[in-house]
Amino acid sequence: MADVATGNPLVPMPARIVKIVEETPDTKTFYISTDQGKPFTPKPGQCVMLSLLDVGEGMFSVTSQGPDHLEIAIRKVGVLTTALHEAEVGQVVGIRGPYGNGFPVEEMKGKDMLFIAGGIGLAPVRSVINYCIEHREDYGHLWIIYGARTPTDLCFKEDLFNNWPKVENCRVDVTVDRADEKWTGPVGFVPPFVEQLKPSPENRIAIVCGPPIMIKLVLETLAKLGYNDEQIITTLEMRMKCGIGKCGRCNLGSKYICLDGPVFTFAQLKLLPSEY
Amino acid sequence: MYKLATEKLPELLQCWSQGATVYVPQKVGEVTLFRPFKGQGDLALGEGNTLEPPKDLFFPRTEKLYDYWASGKEARLEPVELHPDRAVLVGVRSCDARSFLLLDQVFLTRGYVDEFYKKRRENTAVVALACTQAAPTCFCTSFGIDPGRAEGVDVQMWPVPGGYLLEALTPRGEEMLKQASGLLAPAEGEKIPAPAQPSLQVELEGLVEKLQKMFDHPYWGELSRKCLGCAICTYLCPTCHCFDIDCETIETSGYRFRCWDTCLFAHYTLMAGGRNPRPTRKERLRNRLLHKLQYFVERYGQFACVGCGRCLELCPVNVDITKVIRDVKEVSL
Amino acid sequence: MSLQDKMRERARELLESGAVNMVIGWEKGTFWYLSPPAFITTPEEADRLVWDEFCLNNLSKYLLDYRNTDDKIALFVKGCDSRNVVRLLQDNQFPRERLYLLGIKCPGLKDSRAASLLGEEKRAELPLAPKCVGCTHPEPVIYDELLEAGVSGDLGSPEKRFEDVEKIEAMSYDERYAFWVNAYARCIRCYACRNVCPACDCRECIFDRTQTGWCGKQMGLTQNMFFAITRALHVAGRCTECGECERVCPQRLPIMTLNRKIIKELNALFGPYEAGVSLEAKPPVVEYRPDDPDFEERR
What we know:
The complex is a heterotrimer of chains A (276), B (333) and C (299).
Chain A: E1 13-24, E2 27-33, E3 47-52, E4 56-61, E5 64-66, E6 69-75, H1 79-86, E7 92-99, E8 112-118, H2 122-134, E9 142-148, H3 157-166, E10 170-176, H4 190-197, E11 204-209, H5 212-224, E12 232-235, E13 251-252, E14 255-256, H6 257-260, E15 263-265, H7 266-270
Parallel strand pairs in A: 8-9, 8-11, 9-10, 11-12
Antiparallel strand pairs in A: 1-2, 1-7, 2-6, 3-4, 3-7, 5-6, 12-15, 13-14
Helix pairs in contact in A: 4-5
Chain B: E1 2-5, H1 9-16, E2 21-28, E3 31-36, E4 62-71, E5 74-79, E6 87-92, H2 94-108, H3 115-122, E7 124-129, E8 155-160, E9 163-168, H4 171-179, E10 185-186, H5 207-212, H6 219-224, H7 232-235, E11 243-250, E12 253-260, H8 281-300, H9 310-314, H10 321-330
Parallel strand pairs in B: 2-6, 6-7, 7-8
Antiparallel strand pairs in B: 1-9, 1-10, 2-3, 4-5, 4-12, 8-9, 11-12
Chain C: H1 3-17, E1 22-26, E2 37-40, E3 73-77, H2 79-90, E4 99-105, H3 112-118, E5 145-148, H4 163-169, H5 173-184, H6 192-196, H7 221-234, H8 244-248, H9 255-270, H10 293-298
């Protein structure tokens, strides 16, 4: 990123929702494209500011991308996300970005990868899982451990149960907090599930993403399993407005999540105030 | 070096008004503010700091980013093209002049350039006025600021008996003095008055290092008991620069704007799901003070306080940043 | 024994006996003309407390910070402050049994802004704080014990409070509009007037709910005036004229003039009423009465 800008970085480009996938009752994945194709090419883990022009703007991670579109998975929680959930294919949106540092895919090369996610936390992790799959020869074993409240709350089911298990040297373990009558898989929270699966820390990088409480407990579990702080990567979330490290609100100490994050190693996080 | 007679000041301002808007401290009601010079008005150049810092010249309280139209699935936007008028800011004190350099760091560096800020900044000439008398709330010298000579300005003025001395510090400044040459007399050998000597001082040695160990200290909880959580200290701070981005829609059209915001308001960090990483005044006041005294230093290498004393003068409950600095040095970890 | 010594002694005793676990009073601030709020939690700290002519802050507002705690609080109250305590009790914002009131018969306080300009050598000649001019209740209306603060100064006649209102009433509509536009164009919506006001006791203020669309976050005249009017009307019948809003306003906007206009109108419409003077008398716009003349008229 050079210290040059073309145009006002706070003004989005117009784009359209070209496809909507209902992941769970409260989560949808929106496929975003412009007349010229993909708005830009984010690195795995980077975020975008997506807006409905007359409602508002919010920062979301890009969960995946194709040659001519970005995929953004959004859970319905507030005013903007509720309005987005009511939108239909063809809706014009504003998009600007990509923002943030993204996952350290270069440093991860040659490592076995462990992905641990809970709920909508799989959205940012999916971008790096897909990246590792696309660059399969650069990475070792891929292990995905995912959990959600109930089987219906599992996001990206097609990937979890169909696409990813077929990838060479890739393992997927899924748990739910509460089973329904059809669920035959493991039941229980993610942290004890990880402890039970005992992924060895040998030559492995763990990427953890989910609700704050899950992250906290998983970090404790990984420490117990012998992971050091440099081996653990997570992403942070704060309220954001500008996305470019100026408006102030997403600071964690002297770092801005939007610009210097959202991806941090646990070692980096330990040096920052515990205000997230 | 040139001299301007006191009675010629309005003529000088008039002269600089050719093709530009001149902003100069004026009495407005009971307070002093930078206001456009319109040939008359109650000039208040001699009365210390203005109530509001001049930062809004570059970073307006509210600024439109783009207009939009939205109906059904269709929507379009029209970015605001900014062509700011040329401006001359006259009577800026050394503390506020330093604040511009700090705001430049925020808005013009670290990967993204704020185009609106940049245009306004480039279009504005800054004429500083030296301080020869300090208010009890002034402590600029603690931050290495010289009240007698401002940094990064086009023209420096000094008050002297019967008028002002003026010295150009940039080519633009030289141009301005040339423009006003008919009003100025050469003032070689004229003595520059001694700068103000604020009696209030703070010792900054070791402060950042101490604060780095104090994030979880009970001091912040105690300090924040009296804080009202209002925005006086942030909105009237020359270096505070936080903003919000929001929109105003009426039926099918509207505009998106950015406006001043403050880390002392609860909704500043309130997330859509209801989580707030800074849920009480303790976390919010701590963030403000650490931003000034630690975070900004870590990020940009300078303190984000210029010792102008506005927060100290105006805080309804006397949250005093100089006392905070003294307290921090004394509290045991 | 001076009032200040008495305050310190009583604070110490109350904390030592465990009758309360916090005393809220005033302490000396950065300058001689500042006496900001102090929160005393141990007997040893009681000597921080001061009483002087700059103890302007109305401390009753802080009760709201402790409404959901178990803290037992001793609070120093001047006459005006005590009326806000009554209001908070009436609104069930704080339980009386967790509150010990140390009333101060107030002699009238001094203008700290004037003090900062005039200097310490003029301390004896300082003007009365604007908020004290025409004070109707120098003596607290509710207390557990009363402390005397010496001879009362001349606070002026209560009618003086409405002088500014009458000046504006004498203006034409256009002049009035210009007056308020002129003032509120300067408002920076720092919300200090709201945050310092003990009558502003909503858990969540509509001006903090920016997403609802009631009032945009822009700093514009429309939004400023909407805020000013909403705030004034929302404290209608609940404003005790403690004057804190106007005292803290950095732009020195005539906020009390707005409040007093409403008080004047309420008195004319509903009969004389002073907020927070008695626990029994409910504010006119809060209480419903079947014999309300408007109600009769509509029937």
